[in-house]
Amino acid sequence: MRLSPRSIPMSWKARETRYAYATVLPVVVVVALFTIYPVVYAVSTSLRQVVLYRPDSTPFVGLKNYVDIVRGDFFPTAWAHTLTFTLFAVPLATVLGFGTAHLLRVRSRLAGFLNAAVLLPWAIPTVISGVIWAWIFNSTYGAFNGVLYSLGLISSYIPLLSRPSSALFCVLFAHIWKELPLTSILYVAALQAIPDELYDAARADGAGVLAMLRRITIPLVLPTTLIVVIYESMVAIVTFDLLYVMTGGGPAGATSLISYYIYNRMFTSYNFGQGAALAVILALSLIVFILVYLRVLNSEEVYRE
Amino acid sequence: MRHSRTQQLLVTALALLAAAYILAPFAWVAVSSIQPEKELFSVPPHWVPRILTGDNYRFIFTGKFPAGYTETGLLRGRISEKARDALPALMNSTIVALTVAAANLLLGVVAAYSFSRLRFRGAGALYTFVLASRLLPPMALAIPYYLIVARLGLLDRYGALILIHSAVTLPFTVWFLAVYFKRVPPDMEDAALVDGCTRLQVLVRIVAPVAAPALAAAAAFAFMFSYNDFPFALFVTSTIRSQTIPVIVSATAVNPDVSFGVVAVTVVLTMLPPVAFALLFRRYITRGLITVVTTR
C-alpha cells in the first residue's frame, strides 16, 4: 500500500525533509570541497603565470598559457600519442573482451577456473601490474625477450621499453591485461541476456556460426559494445599509472600521453600555470566526450532492438 | 549445444591461451620473488627455477641482507633498503582503505537511500552534482588537492587520503546503491513507517539486511579504489608516515639499480589482500561491475 499524501501529517513530512538533508549533506559537502574549489583554482591558475621560482608574483596573463601550450612542440605529440594509444587500446580491449566472454561461458572445469582467474588483473593496483610488466619486458633479463630468444625468433635481446617504436606497445600489452577483466565480464552479462531460442531458430534455418554471430550476437550486444568502447576510451585517455612505472614517459617522450605530460609540466618543469591550462583542456575534452557518451546511451536507436 | 571435436579443441586451446596471458605475470613475479638475484640475471631465464630461497622475504621482514648482496656491491643493498618500507606502507594502505570503506557505508548508504526514496527540494540537482563530480580527470585535480590538504594541515597524514578517497568513492557508492534501492519495492518500508518507525530505523532494520550483498559490493569497491589509488597518494604523501603501498612499490621499482627479487616480494605482498578479496567476493564484485558501467 502506498501512503496517500493526505494521510501524512505536516510535521512528519517536515521531519522527513530534515532527515533527507541531514543524510545527503555530508556527502555533498565532501564532494563539493574536492570539486568546486579544485575547478575554480585550476581555471584561475591557468590564467596566471605561476612558476615555482616566483611564488609571490602570479600576474594575470589571460590565455597566454593556453596559447603557449597549444603552440608548443609537445602538445600535438602528447595528443598524438594519446590518440594512437587509445585507437589501439579500445578495439583490442573490446574485441578481446568479447572473445574472452565466450570462453567464460563454456561449461567446463577450465572455464570455471578462468572465471575466477579473470578478475585478478582488475583487482591489483595498476602500479603493481606496471611493475610486473616492466620486469617482463626488461631489456636485459626480461621473460618476454627470453621467450622470443628461446624460441629462436631473436638472436639477442631487444630493449623493448627503451625504443620509441616499441615502448608504447609494451604499455598497451599491460593496459589490455588490466582492462580485459572488466570488458569480458560486461560481455558475459550481455551474452547471457540473449535468449537461446534465437540461436535455436537460426540453427533450424541452417545458419552457420558466422551468420549467427553477425546477425544475432553482434547486433544484440551493441548497447554493451557502445558502453565498453566509450568507457575504455575514457580510461585510455587518462592513462598515467602504467606510464609512471613502466617508461616514465620515455624514451624521448614516446609514451608521454596527455596525463603524463601534465604531470611533467607541473612536477618536473614546475610550470603550474601551463599545467593547469593543460588540465583544463583535458577536462573539457573529456566532458565533451562524456556528453557524446550520454547522448549515445540515451539515443533510442541503441535500445530499439 | 553440439560442437564438433575441432571446435572443442579450438575453444580449449584459446581458453588455455587466455589463462596463460592472465596468470603468467602473477606466476612469473611469484617465482622471481623466491630466487637469488644472480639467478634472475640469466639469459635466457631459467623457466623452472634451479635454486629457491626465502632470502628476499627475510630481507623485507627482518632486514637481513640476502646472501648475493655482497657480490653485487653495497650500493645495491642500500638502494633496496627502501623496499623495507613495504610493511609499514601495507599497514598504511589497509588502515586508509578500511576507513574509506567504513565512511562509504556510514555516509554513502544513508545518502543513497534518501536520494532513492525521499523527495526534497534540490534533490535532483544535488544528485547530478555528486555524480558529475566524477567526470574530472585526476590529473586536473592534483595541484588543487594538494593545496586543500595543505590548508587543512593534513599533508602526509591518513586524513588527507581518507578525505580524498572518500570524495572520489562516495559518488559511486551513492549512485550504485540508489540504483539498487530504487529496484526494491517500498511496500515493507511504508508499512514500517505507518507502524511508527523512523526513516533511519527502516533503513537499518528492513532495507540494509535485504541489500546486504549490494552494501558489501559498495564497501569492496571503496576498499579496492583506496588500496589501488596511485596518483592522489603520490601527491599528498611524502614520508612513510602515510605513504601507501603503491607509492612505495613504484618508488622502489623505478630505481634502475634495485634488486628485482626484493621488488617482487613487495609486489607479491601487495597483491595478496586484493586477490584474496576478489576471490572471496567474486559474485558481488562481478554483479557490481556490471551495474557500474551499464546502469545510468
**Could you tell me which chain pair has the largest interface and how many residues each side has?**
A-B, 97 and 99 residues
Rg of chain B computed from alpha carbons, rounded to a whole number of angstroms: 24 Å
Q: Structural class, from helix and strand content of chain A?
A: mainly alpha
Per CATH, which architecture of one domain in chain A? Orthogonal Bundle
Count of DSSP-assigned helices of chain A: 16
Ranges of chain B where pLDDT stays below 50 over 5 or more residues in a row are none
Low-confidence stretches of chain A: 300-305
The total of beta strands of chain B comes to 0
Percentage of helical residues of chain A? over 70%
Q: Quick one: CATH superfamily of one domain in chain A? A: MetI-like
Q: How would a textbook summarize the main sheet of chain A?
A: none
**Kindly, what is the distance between the CA atoms of the first and last residues of chain B, rounded to a whole number of angstroms?**
35 Å
Overall geometric form of chain A: globular
CATH fold name of one domain in chain A: MetI-like fold
CATH class of the largest domain in chain B: Mainly Alpha
Please identify the top-level CATH class of one domain in chain A. Mainly Alpha
Q: Which of globular, elongated, flat, extended, rod-shaped describes the shape of chain B?
A: globular
